[in-house]
Amino acid sequence: MWFPSLALGLVLAVTAGQCDDRLPPASHTMFPKGFKFGASTAAYQVEGGWDADGKGPSIWDDYLHKHPDYIKNRNNGDVADDSYHFYKDDVRALKEVGFQTYRFSIAWPRVLPNGRTSHINQAGIDYYMNVIDELLANGIEPVVALYHWDLPTPLQEIGGWLNPDIADLFTEYADLMFQTYGDKVKWWITINEAQSVAGGYGGDNAAPVLNLHGTGDYLAGHNLLRAHGKTYRLYQRKYSHQGGKLSMAFCGAPCFPTTQTPEDIAAADRCFQFSFGWFGHPVLKGDYPPVMREYVDRNSKAEGRNVSRLPYFTEEEIREINGTVDWFGLNYYTAYWGKEGAVGANPSVDRDSNVNKYFDPNWPATATTWMKVIPQGLRLAIQKVRQEFGNIPIIVTENGYPDHGDLDEKRIDYFETHLAEMRQAIYEDGINVIGYCLWSIIDNFEWRDGYTVKFGIVEVDFNSPNKTRTLKKSAYWFQNYMAMHKLLE
Ligand code: GBH
In angstroms, how far is CA 332 from the centroid of its own chain? Predict the structure, then answer.
C-alpha cells in the first residue's frame, strides 16, 4: 500500500533519534509507511532512436530537424541517452541507488507512428514491455506517463491540441496502452505538465512553437482536460479491474505574497489558480477556477471580443472531467514572490492573472534562468494543494537541480533542503504525501538548454558509444538518505 499511516509516522518522528547520539539526528527519521522514492525521465529526453524500428516522428523531432538553432549547441533528442538500447543500464542505476519506483513516459509515435490505432508499431510496443519487465524483475514499480510532450507529427498536422478531435485520439491511444501494459502498470499519468504543453501553443519555448499567447494556450489546455477526462472515464469503464491509479503531473511555481496586504495575498492566490488551479480545479472541483473565469472573461470583453479567450465546458464536460484524479502528481522546481500587477505579453495567461511574479535577489541562482533555489516553495505548493483540493494523496513527481556538470554538491543541498520541507509538510502539516520522484535519474536532453544543462544524479558520457552511466556523488547521497530514513514496513 502507498498510503502512509500518519499517526504511526508521527510517533516515530518524535521518538526516533532524539536523545541517543548514536542514532542519526532528528532530521534523519523515517518516512511514513508505504512511502516510495523514485526517479523520473521522459521519452524524448532519454530514448533517442528517434526513427528506429518503425517509430514515427514527433513534433519535437520535426521542429528540431527544421530549426536546429532553436536549441543550445544545435542539440536534439535523436540519440540522447540512447535508452532505447541501454534501458537496462538505466534500471541498473535505479536499482543501485535503491529506488522503488521509476517514472518514465511512453512516446506516442513510437507505438502509434501516425498517432492513430489503425497502425501499431510492434517494435515500439515490445520496447516498453521490455522496460516494464526489466523494472519488475528488479523490484522497481513503474509509474508511466502517456504524454510528455512528443505528439505524433501527423496529429499536429490536423492542429494538435487545438483540434477537439484530439481528445478521442488520445483516449484511443490510452486504451491501447492500458490494454497492453495495464496488468503490470498500476500508476498512470495521462499528461505531464498540461500547462507546459499549452505553453507550446501559447508561447515559443516548446514545440510546436505557435506563440498564440492568451488564446492558443487556453484552447490547447481545454482539449488536454477533455482528453484527460475521457481517458479517466474509459479506464473506469474498461480497466477498473486492473486497479490502477491515474493522475496528471501538475506544475506551477507558487508565489509568496510580497506583503500581507489583501491585494498581495489575493495576487499570490491567483498565481496558484492560473497554474496548478488551471488544470487541478477542473479535475478535482469541476470547471476552471472561478477567479480565472472572471479575469479572462473580463479582459476578453475589454478587448472587444464576443467570446472569452478561455473556452467554456458544457455541463456534461464539467461532470465528465470532475473527479478524475486518484492522486495528485506535483512537479516542483522553483517559486516566486508575487504582487498585484499586469505584466507579460498582451494578451497572455500571465497578464490575465494580474500577478507580477519575481525572484528574490537573495535566492541562489542555478544553471538555468527560469529557476532559483527556494526549498520553502515546495512546502507552500503542497500546502496550497491540500487547502484547495482536500486530502488527496500527493506524489512529488519531479524535483531536481540543474548544473553544467560542475555543482553536484549544490544538487545534494537542493535535495536535502527540499526533502526537509517535504517532511515538514508530512509531519508538521499532516499532509498526505505518499511518494517522491526526483528529476532525473540520468543527465538528459534538457529541452532548449540541450545537453548543456544537467539534472541527473547519474552522469552520462554522451561521447561514448554506449553512453556510459556513472553514479554521481548525489546518487550515493540519495542512496544513503534512503537507507538512513528507513521506510516503515
Ligand atoms: C519539467 O518542466 C519537465 O517535465 C521536464 O521534462 C524537464 O526536463 C524538467 O522540468 C526540468 O526542466 O524559459 O522562462 O519560459 C519544468 C517546467 C516549464 C520549466 C517551462 C521551464 C520554461 C520557462 N518548465 N519553463 S521560460
Answer: 8
Nine cell digits for residue 431:
499532509
Q: Is the pLDDT of residue 11 over 90?
A: no
Give the DSSP per-residue string, 76-103. -TTTTT-HHHHHHHHHHHHHHHT-SEEE
- Dig out the grid coordinates for 215 from the structure: 488564446
Query: From the candidates 340, 398, 421, 446, which is the catalytic residue?
Result: 398
414 CA to centre of ligand 1 in angstroms: 17
Q: Is 340 a catalytic residue?
A: no
**Cα atoms in the Cβ-side hemisphere of radius 13 Å centred on 180:** 23
**Ligand 1 atom with minimal separation from the 149 CA:** 6
Q: Specify whether the CB–CB gap between 104 and 484 falls below 8 A.
A: no
- pLDDT tops 60 at residue 456: yes
Q: What percent of the chain has pLDDT over 90?
A: 92
Q: Which amino acid is at 188?
A: W
Query: Nine-digit cell at 71?
Result: 536549441
Q: Which residue is closest in CA terms to ligand 1's atom 19?
A: 370
Among the atoms of ligand 1, which is closest to the Cα of residue 203?
15
Q: Look over the chain and give the mean of its residue pLDDT values, rounded to a whole number.
A: 94
Calpha distance 318→235 (Å, rounded): 18
Residue range 288-296: mean pLDDT, rounded: 98
For residue 290 the three cell numbers come to: 472561478
Average of pLDDT values for 413-419? 98
Q: What is the model's pLDDT at position 488?
A: 52
Model confidence at 219: pLDDT above 90: yes
CATH, domain range 4-484 = 3.20.20.80
Residue 62 pLDDT > 70, yes or no? yes
pLDDT in tens, 141-163: 999 999 999 999 999 999 999 99
**Ligand 1 atom closest to the CA of 42, numbered from 1:** 6
The question of whether 398 is a catalytic residue gets the answer yes
Catalytic residue among 193, 340, 388, 421: 193
Distance separating alpha carbons of residues 198 and 186, to the nearest angstrom: 27
Q: Which of 150, 193, 457 to mutate to test the pocket of ligand 1 (most atoms within 8 A of CB)?
A: 193
Q: Considering the entire predicted model, what is its pTM?
A: 0.94
CA of 350 to the centre of ligand 1 (A): 16
Give, using CA atoms, the residue closest to atom 6 of ligand 1: 42
pLDDT band at 484 (very low <50, low <70, confident <90, very high): confident
Question: Closest ligand 1 atom, CA of 444?
Answer: 8
**How far is Cα 288 from Cα 399, in angstroms, rounded to an integer?**
26
Identify whether the C-beta of residue 444 lies closer than 8 Å to the C-beta of residue 83.
no
